[in-house]
Amino acid sequence: MGDEILDIIPFKNRSKIGIELPGSKSISNRALILAVLNQGPVELRGILDSDDVNIMLAALKDLGIKIREGKKNSIYIEGTGGKIPVKSATLNVGNAGTVARFLTSLLALQDGSQYILDGTEAMRKRPMGGLIKSLEDHGTRFEYLGEKEHFPFKILCNGLNSSDWFIDASESSQILSAILLIAPCIKGKKTIQLKGSTVSKPFVTMTLKMMKQFSRDSGYNVFSNLDNYSITSFDYNINDEFYQIEPDATAASYFLSLPISVYGEIHIENIQNCILQGDINYCDIIAKCGVNLDHSKSGITSHVSSSITGGDFDFNDISDTFLTLAALSPLLKTPLSIQGISHTRKQETDRVSGMVNQLKKIVDHVEESHDSIRIVPDGDFFKKVINKPIEIETYEDHRFAMSFAILGSFDLLGNNQPWLRIIDPMCCTKTFPNFFKTLDFCRTKVENGQ
To answer: 313 by DSSP, 3-state: which?
Structure first.
């Protein structure tokens, strides 16, 4: 954990602001895997420059994949049809869940290769069992260098057979997506069946849509029925000049919510046509709370004209955004209940308990169950900051830093002085390195009356 502390400076005026957001982390890392699986070169435009994506890029380069930078936020990848040139390597996945699962699955496609994978201490605690068991059932061997079914481990690759798959993805949809991405590259017809169900299903839908986008020139043979998938082998062979990555809808949640704390109006460019990301449905939730959202050809504009209320919401499908609204709950006029989030206890940190612990520094009434939290705002948390600013622990989790920064932008003291500070703010480099620069840009625009 970093020892830096950042005071969040509140906004002092209402104004109209316009911003652009970086590319989606989830789409960027899927696109990188699909580009490697592609039969031939592909340009990825709008790719996110962040820790998670850079970890994936570094690993692919270490594996011998030819990658070169293009113009702004653009890279060229020489697709290999999934064949990895380097047959032995030691790789580090950091604390990037998408990299950990997608890369493990890609490596399992290889035959006669072996690799050692490790991650941070936090990554060593995150669930990998569902993916590992499925790969083992299809010919991959794992030698554990620590706890069973966790990092670090050695993966001994023997190719993958085309027998049917039975996958436990109850703890992370990334496990299912990891298998779906490589399934067309396994010879023959195969069926993928979930044991039970999975969480964050829109991310599975994203995976399937991107698989189709990358195979439109060679035939897409995937049929789904509830939690069952039938896939016949086909080539990824996108033949366009480039693949455009959408702006990050999860990052948009912070700025779409900014008017709750600072009023005014903010326009976010180019997110109106996000067709791959389920997190864009966060718009529906804050609209029910009273935020006004205007869709146009250029983007989405968010503004507040009356009091914002709470409600009872299921965030299972869009769980990355639950922290955004939860952090703003002290400003709501009625209680907020959030459910469907138990699986977030095994992400970068235990996000449920972490959010509860931080909110208790601000409001008195916060309730926690295994799958939910409930916050009753008291409308008067001024007394909490009389002596010193509230310090928010981020647990090395980017979403805590960004969510509470939006709350701290509220001018609680009425004098434009900080009342909330973020410990280890730069943990946000995981997915949005320029978050605080973007927030400062918005605040400066407001102060200058622009």
So the answer is: strand
pTM, whole model, 2 decimals?
0.94
> Of 386, 398, 388, 387, whose CA–CA distance to 423 is shortest?
398
For 229-285, what is the HEC assignment?
A: EEEECCCECCCCCCEECCECHHHHHHHHHHHHHHCCEEEEECCCCCCCCHHHHHHHH
Q: What is the pLDDT of residue 72?
A: 86
CATH classification code of 5-22+246-447: 3.65.10.10
Domain residue ranges in the chain: 5-22+246-447, 25-230
Give me the amino acid identity at 232.
Answer: T
Do 355 and 326 form a contact (C-beta atoms < 8 A)?
Answer: yes
Q: Pick the catalytic residue: 248, 320, 397, 424?
A: 320
Confidence of residue 340 (pLDDT cuts 50, 70, 90): very high
320 in active site: yes
Q: Are 63 and 85 in contact (CB under 8 A)?
A: yes
Instruction: Out of 3.30.450.40, 3.30.470.20, 2.60.40.420, 3.65.10.10, select the CATH number for domain 25-230.
Output: 3.65.10.10
Q: How many residues does the chain have?
A: 450
DSSP state of 188: S
